[in-house]
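Notes, Module 5: Reading structure tokens.

Key idea: the token line is not a picture. It is a compressed description, and you learn to read it the same way you learned to read a sequence, by spotting repeated patterns. We will look at two proteins. The first is printed below with its tokens.
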Amino acid sequence: MKIGILNRFSKWFWNEDVWLPPNMTWKDIEKTDVIKYAQFNDLYYGLLVAVVLLIIRFTLERYIFTPIGIYFGLKPSRPKRAPENHVLEKAFRANGRIGYKQIQGLAKQLDWTERKVERWLRQRTLQDKPTTLAKFTESSWRFTFYCSIFAYGLYTLSDKPWLWDTKHCWYDYPHHSMTSDVWWYYMVELGFYTSLTFSQFMDIKRKDFAQMFVHHIVTILLLVFSWSSNLTRIGTIVLIVHDFADCPLEAAKMAKYIHKQRLGDMLFVVFTLAWIVSRLGLYPYRVIYSTAFEAVTCTAMFPAYYIFNGLLCALQVLHIVWTWMIIRVALQAISSKQVKDIRSDDSSAASSSSSCNADGNCNNRTRRKS
């Protein structure tokens, strides 16, 4: 009975009226000895690639990137742990921000000075804060991957007509054969974003954790949808446009972590230009315009197309959100003459002038009174 239910569900889910243009069936794009089409079962290889990439990442971080970071003066050890104190630990975990009055109350409760309480809070925060070396190795891995996959993407698509004329993404659709180089390009990208979805919970927690998680899920859904509906041509353009700006971003962060501020500022400018050109220029002009207007003139519409196009638009909304974050960093850089990490971890927030936050940063009034 269970097999019958699964078969009915599979038949309902893979309805040809949803996934394919009118008058098309799955048999029309089955793999043959002459022509190879994208097959849904191939997506399982993306999970295997994700595991391989995680192994490669942790190997490179431990044996290559960590020694490089140490060579540039980054310390592998964490700050000294704060002495165990149940009262302060409970207050620390319960409050993201500890005010001056609460510090006074804790000091009286423990018969400590206010300065001693502040010192414990600062030390407790630093022990949870990720080391600069950890940030450096994480950015080094991303930089290595993005540069490698962008170079491979250029090599793969350089002789493909749809890179230069996006109308070729829709001519004779869905009869688009799958070449081995495009197959590997898709599987590696799918594996990478799948690995990021899992490793994000172990990586350094950033302020845009939620946005990045949504980004990874949307990207995976786009890859799966485009693969299942044989929309891989427009999918490859989406991939290469996105990888373009990520290379200088990670390079700028690496330079910042090893205290090469001038180099980091220059790379941040390169990243900003690359971001604007790729995410606010090429992506809407080449990708969204093609899926919204060119596709309509070249092929019949079908439900999966609208889902795919909706995901592409959702990705553009994320681009706009991140652009606003970049603009804020740029304005801060102009006023302070120093670029900060646009994806700083949660513990880097500045304290207000009237309280002691989770960073252990307290106002001058508190220090004078103690």
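Here is the second protein, with the sequence above and the tokens below, as before.
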Amino acid sequence: MKKWLGGMVTMALASTLLAGCGGTEPVADGGASNTGAKQKLVISTWGFSEDFFKKEVYAPFEQEHNVEIVLEMGNNAERLNKIRQGSSDVDLIYLSDYYAQQGIQEGLFETVDRSKLTNLEHVYDIAKAPLGEEYGPAYTVGRLGIAYNPGMVSKEVTSWSDLWGPEFAGNVTLPNITATAGPMVVDAASKVAGNAEFNEDAAFTKLAELSPNIVKFYSQTSEFVNMFSQEEIAGGPIMEMYFKDLKAAVPDAKFVAPSEGAYAVMNTLNIVKGSDQKELAEEFMNWQLSKEVQEKSAKAKVDSPVNTEVVLSGEETEGITYGADVVEKLVKLDMAFVNSQMATWTDRWNREIAQ
């Protein structure tokens, strides 16, 4: 047993590859000048909200720093594997904390000079150093909770344990163990079994009890949305950022943070080992954490903000993980522990749960 820290979107979407090369001639101030030869910053990222990022995040930075941003896009696993293989000239990489932890343990990232990240003073504590002080911050923190259709469930859902109730008999979904939310569900099952500290055997026993009621173990959020819209499921665990899609399909849909705690879902920024644009990459990190970028991202419902100076109200907060009262209650998993156990959990999941 091991206690998981209280307190993880991964979202594998586009796989289009826009390959780029490494940096060219650096300027003396590490990228702050808008004169002289244009530099190149190669960024590895997902393909979601591509138009928003190009207009609101990349373009202003390019103009301010006289830099050309080149993108490599794909899902977490694909992009991290390219870094492992040395087949990419990426300087800066966006990854979920689960995959970023793998990169850290494999020595794939540079340490970060936090004195360059002046916007960190305005960032929630949970996002400042989610994987250690030497590595990059989380630029967004979402939460995993329960979404459900009240027209198909005869009670108000308030707890992870409600998923085991008769109201969800034969109409619930869970994320697969290999999905971002998979380890969170294992931890939640341990809590439902009555354990204050994580208990693997109790968690898998509890999940086995729920298995007959599972319509499908989903690997992509689009599968959840499709099942929910067609009323094949009454609900299940999902990341809050996708709740707007559920509301569009079922206007009365509800999202709840379970009483035992919703889980923090964090996406991080890190500098790839050997990058010759480290200072420029740190400038970009700081820009991504700025109130300007964070506010635009939140209002466009692209990412939940980690900058505490962002002020949202009314409909702007729907589908967004927002506010100290929400963020500070999130449960944060120990990603080093998760990574060390994933092979065992995946094997047990396939044998005992997803039969």
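Summary for the second protein:
- Residues 335-353 form the longest helix (19 residues).
- The CA atoms of residues 124 and 324 lie 8 Å apart.
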